[in-house]
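Input record (Table S2, row 355):
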Amino acid sequence: MTILVKKNATEQQIKAVMEALGNIGLAGSLVQGETQKMIWIRGEETTKMDAIKALVNYEGVEKVNPVNEYYKIVSRKFNPDYSDVSTTKIIDVQGVKIGGSKPVIIAGPCTIFNYDQLLETAKAVKEAGADILRGGAYKPRTSPYSFQGLGEEGLKIMYKVGKEVGIPIITEVLDTRDVDIAAKYSDILQIGARNMQNFELLKEVGKQQNPVLLKRGGLEPTLENWLCCAEYIMIEGNQNIILCERGIPTRMSGEYSRNTLDFNIIKAAQEKTYLPIIVDPSHASGRRDMIEGLSKAALSMGVNGLMIEVMRDNEEQHIKYTVNGENEITGFCDYKQSLEAADFKKLMGCLKNMY
Ligand code: PEP
Ligand code: MN
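Output record (manganese (II) ion complex):
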């Protein structure tokens, strides 16, 4: 059940409702939607329906509602100020506005290997016009023998490079135990496709302040599930969520590309939610030669940005890295799906007249 709070309800009135809930043995959390507030009743409520319904008589209460939908506060329906599908929430990241009229470009390497690699790439993408730098310090890898990322050391490199180059940074977090440290060193936290339905991780990123980029993926990457995952984050208090479509495996796609970029879901999601939506053509295709076409198609659908993997020009396929300065090892650079910096610059030139 939820209790919809009147727009002009005072703090005192809300407190009184919370206390009344406490008196019947239930706990309430105040959930702030973009345009409306509600109290979300946690705990076992089925035997207390009559007492809950009676709360409608409290001052400041608009309605007492059962939750009939799987998701609510991320929807346009619950946020009438965003009933026009051409509008989205605007999320400000260090002055970069995600969701405004100009799409944002996020670019950078798949993985952070060392300071020089990230610095050079960051300078190149910024010069070409990127707004935000990406880079992974915690990497979800198919094989346990593949490089798993530099962890905290990678976060520190990224923080330093972001400050030096003057560009906000986004990085992926895989584990609830790393959320605080990753949030401290970055501006946006990324939830990767494999973790879309990692509910404990979603709750944890919902409790911290950084905006969250939620990629679509997992076992059942339906629109409803994607938006439910955004709801998990928002109900914990974090309203700054960016959705990212990065393709899904389909029965036929493996023949010619890594995944299938699902343009249909972009349109459907734009109708259902007011959250900004961006597209990642790199992971969607796994092919650098497809990035330009997919980027143009995505921008023509009115998406709010693109996330593109970019590496240095003439990058070694096997990049050297050391963890805590020990044992030089080599890791694989994902060159098949990453653009070289010079090609990224060309791409930015091609996209210029599209926004
Ligand atoms: C990435 O952004 O490097 C990544 C691993 O993406 P995804 O979760 O979409 O596979
Ligand atoms: Mn990657």
